[in-house]
Amino acid sequence: MKILIVIIFAFLVCQANAFRPILLLGNQNLIERTCKQTPFYDLCIWSLKSNPESRDASVKKLAQIMVDSLKTKATETLDLIDELLQDGLALDPEMQKALTSCAERYNVIIRADVPEINEALKTGDYKFAAKGANDAAIEANSCEIEFPTKSPLTDMNKVVHDVSVVAASIVKIIQTKFSF
Amino acid sequence: MADINPLLPVSSSDGSSNLTGQATCRRPIKVVVSIFFGLLTLGLFAALLIRNNGPVDYVDVHENERGSLASTAFEKAENLKPVSRGPAAGVSEKSNWAFGGDLPDYPWNNSMLSWQRTAFHFQPEKNWMNDPNGPLFYKGWYHFFYQYNPNAPVWGDIVWGHAVSKDLIHWLHLPLAMVADQWYDKNGVWTGSATILHDGKIIMLYTGSTTEGVQVQNLAYPADQYDPLLVHWVKYPRNPVLVPPPGIGPNDFRDPTTAWLTSEGKWRITIGSKINKTGIALVYDTKDFINYEMLDGLLHAVPGTGMWECVDFFPVSETENNGLETSINGHGIKHVVKASLDDDRHDYYAIGTYNDRNGTWIPDRPNIDVGIGLRYDYGIYYAAKTFYDQNKKRRVLWGWIGESDSEAADVKKGWASVQSIPRTILFDKKTGTHLLQWPVEEIDSLRLKGKEFNQVRIQAGSVVPLDIDSATQLDIIAEFKIDSDALDKATGSSDASFDCVTSGGAAERGALGPFGLLVLADERLSEQTPVYFYMTKGSDGNLKTFFCNDQSRSSKASDVDKHIYGSLVPVLRGENLSIRILVDHSIIESFGQGGRTVITSRVYPTKAIHGAAKVFLFNNATELNVTASLKTWQMNSAFIQPYPNL
């Protein structure tokens, strides 16, 4: 009887060792499960997995990584807008007007939305994280439809929009599924 | 004899017993060993299976997709339908997702943006505001505190703003009451409530977000109880007085209520929280607001409602037309439990019975329990809080009205959010199921020039302009009479699934609706906000009346909310349909049937502003003629400003 107990104990220890690789890959499961609940699965996967901090991350941390991605993409877009605006005289007035308006909106994403989302995630008042993320999507979309003809920012606006939507989805997951 | 199994203990020299002994020892060991190896094999096999079916290795993904980020992400993205935000905070799907579709013929200019600021609703001079905090009446002044961001027109860096008024309408701004200067509120001086003690002293309980982001409850009190303006506040030196109890998350513990007395003479408060997806209200008793005992039970809980924020708990009289002090209990009294649901950003209430002995409450009608039934307001309205006004013996309700435009517009105009006009709350004796909300009577003092329209006939399918001068600061009280013949003749439909929110708005014509008013409408009706009734008749002949507010054509702008708000409104036999509307630039507060159903909305027209804004009566029903009688008043500004010479 005693030997039986010792054997079973040894068995359990062995099993734990056999499962250790799964424990390490366990967080891959969390990323996949989380991204499946967002409307842009591939973008979500790529954005999270390309950040090494997603390795042991909680869902809250995944949301923060997504917001970092949003900030990066928005900053790249704003840089491009500034570049285009520097063409100055070469731009027709409507294009100039649209670009200026877009610059305003992207400034709001970077200087208002992102800090709002980060503070809300940190303190756990998640509805304001959702608000900031949803608004970033609106700003990107509003920028895109400012252009009367061809927009030079379509691809980038789409990325910023979609990343925002993913961030908002992850916040929703935190709100509705997790206590901590 | 050779030892067959070298692992076994050496047997004794006794013959028969040896044989038996050896056999008994060997069998269990064989069994155990085979079980062990069997389980091990099974386990390893299972591990292998899981590993193979598991996610792709981290490194592979990184290498494959890095180079082709843009195209891969977009190709896949375009195949997926973009998702609009939920009703409470969303922009209409139809107007938003046309990349290169709707072309705005405006940008937000200063004229449009500056027009949006309200004239007689409470708002700070600039920047962001949210929840009402600690409202109270003390030494001749009404006090109002609020969540405030001193640095930006978005939520963040939250502190307590403060203002005073003699009449709940004309407010004077005071310095910030509390800032984030302690470790226990460093990350936010959040929502709280005031309690007035036996000796008239005031204490404030509020939530602090600590340096670690944990939600705790703190005690504060006026620095000088003889200062009627209560300008300076002191925090109890040994805060926090409450931390999240076991089983409650560090981010699920906030917004303590005003305290009420138990029959044992202790003070009792409730704090909203959640356990998994069940919204709950925790209960604490205290004698000194410093030491607390948590009751074993909850005040109440409703599964599936998520986190309960800004819980409020108060008595209402079933018979009298006055408010009740928070500690009152007894015959002819019901208690209201209210919660702001974090998940859908709406305020819900339910009427029920409070048991003082065990600190619990049961709804009268569990099918319309807290979070699944009635709302204070079917538009933009959140974090509401009541207080007992001992000055006029009424219970007064404050509610935070956020913006429904883009944050870029908020940044441009430099502010965001207003408060509703304070409302009195009464139990609706006639229905027995609803509360009645009505703007405090002091608002009437803002009425200037009035105009009356009697028995205006509005035929089916018509629009009648109202000749009033300015239409951006208005108080309108309207009554609608309907032909009872038309109601009887209308055929009942078994498709009784109308809902303001999912309907086609005021453009969707029904036999018995919609009809009502168009506010903030320009002459050509290119922009308009209908506030209206829509009646349906079921196959059983029963009439239902809906009260709605349609934002779908409220503005040419594409980055504002375009949803339709509203709900059923109970209409009793013999009652005419009545609406009161307060129009104050970008806010519309509408009250149906004396405040049984209320809708607040934020509207941001680009054309129907300043002198171009007009009001119309309309009737878009197909089988109903309507007669309207109404009074309209121009409303004066409340001249809300800093307290002079402070």
Automatic annotation (TrEMBL), chain A:
MF-aspect GO terms: enzyme inhibitor activity
Keywords (A to Z) from UniProt: Disulfide bond, Signal
InterPro entries: C/VIF1 (IPR034087), Invertase/methylesterase_inhib (IPR035513), PCW_Enzyme_Inhibitor (IPR052421), Pectinesterase_inhib_dom (IPR006501)
Transmembrane segments: none
Leader sequence residues: 1-18
Pectinesterase inhibitor domain span: 26-170
Record-stated family: Belongs to the PMEI family.
NCBIfam families, A to Z: PME_inhib
Protein name: Pectinesterase inhibitor domain-containing protein
Species the sequence originates in: Gossypium tomentosum
TrEMBL record, chain B:
Chain ranges passing through the membrane: 31-50
EC number(s) per entry: 3.2.1.26
Statement: the UniProt record of this protein carries the keyword Chloroplast: no
Transmembrane found in the keyword field: yes
Keyword annotations from UniProtKB, A to Z: Glycoprotein, Glycosidase, Hydrolase, Membrane, Transmembrane, Transmembrane helix, Vacuole, Zymogen
Localisation per UniProt entry: Vacuole lumen
CDD domains, sorted: GH32_Fruct1-like
UniProt cross-references to SMART domains, sorted A to Z: Glyco_32
GO biological process: carbohydrate metabolic process
A single MF term (Gene Ontology): beta-fructofuranosidase activity
Pathway(s) it belongs to: Glycan biosynthesis; sucrose metabolism
A Pfam entry, by short name: INV_N
Domain Beta-fructofuranosidase N-terminal: 16-113
Boundaries of every Glycosyl hydrolase family 32 C-terminal domain copy: 442-633
SUPFAM superfamilies cross-referenced by the UniProt entry: Arabinanase/levansucrase/invertase, Concanavalin A-like lectins/glucanases
Entry's Gene Ontology cellular component terms: vacuolar lumen
Main location: other
Domain of life: Eukaryota
All residue ranges annotated as the Glycosyl hydrolase family 32 N-terminal domain in the record: 121-439
Membership in a protein family: Belongs to the glycosyl hydrolase 32 family.
Name of this protein: beta-fructofuranosidase
Organism: Gossypium tomentosum
